[in-house]
Amino acid sequence: MFDLIGFLPRAIVQGVPLLFGSTGETLTEKSGNLNLGIPGIMYVGGISGVIGAFFYEQATVSAGTFRPLLGVLIPLFCSMLGSLLMGLLYCFLTVTLRANQNVSGLALTTFGVGVGNFFGGSLPRIANSSLPSVILTNTGNAFRTTLSGSSSPSAFETLFLSYGFLVYLALAVSLAAAYILRRTRVGLHLRAVGESPNTADAAGINVTRYKYLATCIGSMIAGLGGLYFIMDYSGGIWSNDAFGDRGWLAIALVIFTVWKPDLGVLASFLFGGLYILSVRSSSSMTMATKELYKMIPYLVTIVVLIFTSLRNKRENQPPASLGLAFFREER
Amino acid sequence: MNKKTRVPLFHIAKRSTLPWYHAWAIRGGALILALLVCAGVTAILTGENAFLLYVTMVKGSFGSVRKIWVLLQNIAMLLCVSLAVTPAFRMRCWNLGGEGQVLVGGLASVLVMTFLSPYLPNGLLILVMLLASILAGAVWAGIPAIFKAQWNTNETLFTLMMNYVAMQLVAFYIAYRFPKGTGTMGVVNGDTRAGWLPYLLGQQYLLNILIVALLTGLVYAYLRYSKHGYEIAVVGESERTARYVGINVKRVIIRTMLLSGAICGLAGFLLVSGTDHSLSTTSAGGRGFTAVMVSWLAKFNPIWMIFTSFLLVFLGKGASEIASQFRLNESFGDILTGIILFFIIGSEFFIQYKILLTRSAEKEEKDHV
Question: Is the dihedral of CA A90, A91, A97, A101 positive or negative?
Fold first, then answer.
């Protein structure tokens, strides 16, 4: 019998990194920046948090002064700082220097994945620590603190209260992003910048500022996806390339949700569910079938992409200036 | 009027085309700056003399005859994929699906190699493998192309997704054929060597390198001197102009993407038949993405691409040599490559635009009086 109560939380937990990534990328794309550096940014977001937590644990755990609240806030801050720097780098290249977005994004991914795996693999050696690898169980436990305290949780508790705070943050951020994009003046301006920067510029909107802000905030949100994966999902244990191609799945999710962050909530859980179907160790499924399951999210995304362009409905299209640099003197 | 208008200190204007030596001087400067930054970063992380590192880098690529052959082979493969994506890029059609197109090309080769080798003589087998690979690559690029041409479906995102479908297809095949294996397929036809490209002059990679060299010339000629190449350039500059002068834009898009995929398929064939005699999900090795940078850095010029692909392969090899020499993690190479790319990408700005100091309004008035 299919265990839905057991399945759903695991799908949600799998979906949260994708939700952070896709919310961040949606904001970025709405400003007309196709940031293909998201996979790299998510790695950097993860590793920056790890670095912060690593030094905090080194300083406090043996002395017995580890405080869970600081243990959460320090990695959170470091992670956001790390992904902010990546976002700034991307903006500097594509907005200020007007470089090609695809090339810059791909370079950013190469760089970010490199940074993640390099520090993840050699952080203890650089810091002269005795540990063989990065294991941050104290921080992991702090991130995993849940609302439900009972030892035998009811179905309601497993479904709604069994997560660390980052899961709720992911929901809140994506709903807030959807509200801002659809209902506020700032969102309207942002969409205008993404659709037609020349028009927005003529209307007195500061295109450069909107592009910078949207991309940097988007990067910080996406970076939290990396942080969530390391600290909560993996319990503070870094292993190289464990994050895999979730960054690309997040970009796929943006298309799948037709640039609507609130749809992303459900869609990311759906993708998460598909993902665990493929890694679940069920005996009835061969390895080969699992590999085919992993293909489904990408196929579904392609179908959505085709469908939106076929129906040609105006509100479901990619932002019109997606991928193009804005130069005021070029009409 | 009390409010003073703020005059920016400088503004940016587009340059007229720079002479090529000037442009390359700017790029060279950026590269040197990047290498200095890399040296700094490495020195901080390793505590070694930064300039010894460059000696290590050069040794890693040119240290022995074997290493030089491997370097040339890697350049050839990267150049091949770059040549493949270039026609599409010239048309401003962002084919980011090189990775997947190479993989399906390789998969087609492996399939023919495995299942037809008992029935065909070796020469014919290689020919069938080649054709199958080219066809598979072309189909993989053709699907996004048709949707791009007919319904203007975003080709960047479409081709990107096709990469992962291809990757899973390869993973599926490996898991299906070798259910109890370690997730690798091993060398195909290791005993009979059926479907393996012959070694020229005893060198495994020589034939690959020659084929890619020939291809470079062909693609250059195709883009520069053929009617097709001209049509691609016009569509890239302005679709409306192209339509106005009577170019069938849809046909050009589909034709060029098919060509792009076909050359990627060829690269897959060379990887399987001429290099690894095997296939894994990482066989393409990120070349589909690196090729985007190779092609862009060379301003989509196939001849310059020889140099830019050398540069990227050399940097990657050198950086991983540094990593192993100083017992750093392999990924250190990616960090250095990333830094260098950022500098080169940034330097393009100074080739395209110039920064002019704004003369203040009062001064302007004085001049007019």
Answer: positive
